[in-house]
Amino acid sequence: MVWKLIFVNVIVIVVVIWLTGVSVKDFACFLVNQYSIVNKENGELFNETMHFYLLRASITASIVAAFIHYFFIRKILSPLQALTKSARQMTSGIYPNPLKVTNDELGQLSQDFNQMISTLKQAEESRKNMLGDISHELRTPLSNLNGYLEALSSGVIDGDKALYRSLHEEAKHLIRLVDQLHQLTSWETKRLNSSVREKIAIDKVINNSVQLFELEFFNKNIEVLVETEPAVLMGDEIGLKQVLDNLLHNAIRYNRGNFIKLEGRKVNGDHLYRVTVTNKGDFIPSDKVSHIFERLYRIDPARQRATGGSGLGLAIVKEIITQHGGQVGLDSDGGLHSFWFTLPIDS
């Protein structure tokens, strides 16, 4: 590439210099002949001298131009060569070192490439962590099921109602985990656009979701406080119902008080709609609040596995809300928790 560019540019320079020089030479010779400044013999010598200097100037200019052009082209193409080398490393499964960034268009390209590498690294790390977490989640219930079934089939133990109930709970845990993994994967590969969005009265969706849990609220003696402000937004109604179901399900499962409060309000100059689910629950350390929406993250894995938690419900909430262009979060003082999400309001 370097030598091709140098060759092409040198040819252009030589042609320009030669055409310019020939024009100057011909004009000088014309003046000499027209006004008889020198005799015929001296005129021919003058023409030969002009031709010699023209040729020498062209060769000298070409050589100088080639050297200058070589250094400039090398400087320009060096980032591209480094970019090409890094791209080849990536095709081989090797993440290259960050490229040097300069203050020009090629520097911006290098910066974007570095950002792409960083994003791919994070995605790869996230994938590996998730596979490890899934393997860990599946290992325990599968080992329990396999151990008990093997013991039952070999006659080492006799089955009773309590044992079969325990095996049933492990099976339900596996089904729940696989189902939530499917939901999360489906939303991660889904991209909401105008063709699948519809106008939604978010306050009605909230009230309908609360009604679905009325029996559970009654059985667990939980008082429900609902305060919603009417608003219309564009989105996927099934997805938003899933968000509210997950938040209310978690609030009921880990509730340690006698109330659950659900609020829906317009905020940020009526440009956003904020939904908050508040209740008293298990203690959440402040350093774990920022991780609560991560996939398969659980504050106390052993205890939550026993109560049926998979660590995916809030990750699904985050993915769905992110697809809607909103944000999620948790405000907690340790015991009183407010899980919230925001959605852009249709204008």
Automatic annotation (TrEMBL):
Annotated Histidine kinase domain residues: 133-347
**Any GO molecular function:** kinase activity
Q: Which PROSITE patterns match?
A: HAMP (PS50885), HIS_KIN (PS50109)
Q: Give the catalytic activity.
A: ATP + protein L-histidine = ADP + protein N-phospho-L-histidine
Record field: transmembrane: 6-32, 53-73
Enzyme Commission number(s) from the entry: 2.7.13.3
Stretch forming the signal peptide = none
Identify the residues that the record assigns to the HAMP domain, covering every copy: 74-125
Principal subcellular localisation of the protein = membrane
Q: Where in the cell is it found?
A: Cell membrane
Q: Could you say which enzyme class this protein belongs to?
A: transferase
Its record classes its membrane topology as: Multi-pass membrane protein
Q: Which keywords describe this protein according to UniProt?
A: ATP-binding, Cell membrane, Kinase, Membrane, Nucleotide-binding, Phosphoprotein, Transferase, Transmembrane, Transmembrane helix, Two-component regulatory system
Top-level division of the source organism's lineage? Bacteria
Record's protein name = histidine kinase
